[in-house]
């Protein structure tokens, strides 16, 4: 990719500025606040867009920092570039009310869609985070961030595992995690539904069981009543005729009839009168005692009787109710018996359903199998990423070592990159942690890592954009670095507030364009 032209219509403090860029090194020289960082930010904003922050973040975000000083609603620009042998024109309006982006292929006039990802496709998948951590180095920002470590790890897993760096295993892992969370959520909801169903069934079973007990009691009561009526009827049939006559003569509310007392008295008098003395006294006394015992028994017989519930019920029944036919009681008994049978069947069914709920369902097994499969896939991907990371580190070490060897003039022949981009330098077969070297050498290791990563990650050769990157470089290493850039990069955009870069380029005879 080559950037050919920058047209800054209104961006920051710049407006209507037109900059032509060429192959090789393009040098932007100027003092502080001359607009170098503005042009650097403009290039990034044109390539990847410029979003306004929300809430408090919008006060000091990039959108607010570079909002035009004059005519803030006219916040736009245009960038022309070449990629894949074709020329493109990209225009953007950054205004929050009229935000837009247009991409046109100047060779055939085809209008492409930025929103649909055509620009990303043309840039070969280069994202803003990768851009900032490889080919674009801002002021005092030489150290790459952790997104580069993640991108390198993802690249290693993708490329070495599949041979295709376009397959994003980090996204695949994210998708698997999302799927795992979905499966866990579904399993939790299924378990909650199961618990709710169980609670509902247990409650229903308790109601049915209560009905069963109630119906059993009702059935027993009706059976006792029927039995009592049958016995009563049987007793009535077997009672002596004279007892029935007496019972019929005796009023219901009386326990002994007055006629019986008169008869007892007559018997005693006749015995006393007719039997000779002194035996008449004895017989009269005996008859009197027998009559007294009879009367006493008649008076106490109701108190001694133990009455059953049906007897009590029957005593409370009115004469009209006593006439209720036995058929009705039998019908009630049959009706209760049928309802009791239905309730028992219903209760048994509920018990079976509760037992089935206790068993592991097919859906639960499917959820468990799916979650196990997802965890296994994530395990495999993580294991693959770890194994492939070693190969990546070796390849990255080789590329970075070539660069650090060139720009340090052979002082450091090898750069070793470990986990999380921790680096060590090799000098005279001695391993030196990067924290122990000078600030200038640290900046050079960061530069070597960025350039090596760009070569490894991207097939496209992007412009290298450097904003006062060489402040800590001595002249010798700056010469080596500029020579390496001129020999290995198609386009370099160099922003500096010093004349040193221009002087060294002229001294070495390296062609450059001063903007």
Number of helices: 16
Content-based structural category = alpha/beta
Point out poorly predicted stretches: 159-167
Largest sheet: 6 strands, antiparallel
Please give the radius of gyration in angstroms.
Answer: 54 Å
Termini Cα gap: 19 Å
The helical percent reads 55-70%
Average pLDDT number: 81
Strand content: 5-15%
CATH topology-level fold name of the domain at 1-126 and 460-515: Rossmann fold
| Shape designation | rod-shaped
Features:
515 residues, alpha/beta, Rossmann fold, six-stranded antiparallel beta sheet, five-stranded parallel beta sheet, 14 strands
Fold and architecture overview:
58% of the residues lie in helices and 15% in strands. The two termini are 19 Å apart. Among the domains are: 1-126 and 460-515, P-loop containing nucleotide triphosphate hydrolases (Rossmann fold, 3-Layer(aba) Sandwich), CATH 3.40.50.300; 182-358, no CATH class. The strands form 3 sheets. Strands 2-1-4-5-6-7 form a 6-stranded antiparallel β-sheet. It has a 5-stranded parallel β-sheet with strand order 8-12-13-3-14, sandwiched between helices. By secondary structure, it is α/β, with parallel strands linked by helices. The radius of gyration is 54 Å and the shape is rod-shaped. The chain is built from 16 helices and 14 strands. Helix 6 runs antiparallel to helix 12, helix 6 (169-238) packs antiparallel against helix 13 and helix 15 (475-488) packs across helix 16 (500-508).
């Amino acid at each position: 990719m080559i950037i050919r032209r920058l047209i800054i219509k209104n961006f920051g403090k710049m407006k209507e500025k037109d900059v032509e860029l060429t192959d090789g090194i393009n040098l932007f020289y100027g003092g502080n606040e001359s607009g170098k960082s503005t042009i650097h930010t403009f290039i990034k904003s044109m390539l990847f867009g410029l979003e306004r922050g929300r809430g408090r973040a919008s006060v000091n975000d990039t959108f607010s920092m570079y909002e035009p000083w004059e005519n803030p609603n006219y916040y736009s620009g245009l960038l022309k570039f070449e990629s894949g042998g074709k020329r493109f024109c990209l225009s953007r309006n950054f205004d929050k009310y009229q935000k837009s982006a247009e991409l046109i292929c100047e060779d055939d006039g085809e209008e492409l869609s930025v929103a649909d990802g055509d620009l990303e496709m043309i840039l070969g998948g280069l994202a803003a985070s990768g851009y900032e951590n490889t080919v674009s180095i801002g002021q005092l920002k030489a150290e790459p961030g952790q997104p580069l470590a993640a991108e390198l790890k993802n690249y290693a897993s993708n490329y070495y595992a599949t041979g295709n760096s376009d397959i994003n295993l980090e996204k695949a892992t994210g998708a698997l995690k999302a799927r795992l969370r979905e499966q866990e959520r579904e399993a939790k909801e299924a378990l909650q539904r199961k618990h709710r169903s169980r609670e509902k069934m247990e409650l229903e079973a308790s109601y049915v069981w209560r009905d069963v007990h109630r119906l059993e009691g009702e059935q027993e009561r009706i059976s006792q009543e029927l039995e009592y009526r049958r016995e009563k009827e049987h007793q009535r049939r077997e009672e002596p005729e004279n007892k029935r006559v007496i019972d019929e003569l005796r009023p219901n509310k009386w326990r002994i009839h007055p006629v019986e007392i008169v008869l007892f008295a007559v018997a005693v008098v006749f015995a006393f009168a007719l039997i000779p003395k002194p035996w008449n006294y004895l017989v009269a006394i005996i008859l009197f005692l027998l009559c007294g015992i009879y009367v006493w028994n008649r008076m106490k017989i109701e108190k001694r009787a133990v009455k059953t519930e049906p007897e009590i019920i029957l005593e409370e029944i009115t004469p009209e109710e006593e006439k209720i036919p036995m058929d009705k009681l039998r019908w009630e008994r049959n009706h209760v018996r049928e309802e009791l049978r239905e309730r028992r069947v219903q209760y048994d069914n509920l018990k079976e359903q509760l037992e089935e709920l206790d068993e592991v369902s097919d859906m639960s097994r499917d959820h468990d199998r799916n979650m196990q499969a997802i965890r296994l896939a994530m395990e495999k991907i993580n294991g693959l990423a770890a194994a492939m990371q070693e190969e990546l580190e070796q390849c990255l070490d080789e590329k970075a070592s070539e660069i650090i060897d060139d720009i340090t003039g052979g002082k450091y022949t090898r750069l070793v990159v470990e986990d999380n981009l921790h680096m060590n330098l090799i000098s005279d077969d001695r391993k030196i942690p990067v924290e122990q070297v000078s600030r200038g050498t640290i900046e050079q290791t960061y530069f070597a890592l960025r350039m090596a990563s760009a070569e490894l990650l991207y097939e496209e050769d992007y412009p290298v954009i450097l904003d006062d990157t060489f402040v800590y470089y001595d002249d010798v290493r700056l010469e080596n670095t500029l020579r390496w850039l001129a020999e290995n990069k198609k386009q370099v955009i160099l922003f500096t507030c010093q004349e040193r870069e221009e002087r060294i380029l002229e001294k070495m005879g390296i062609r450059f364009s001063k903007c």
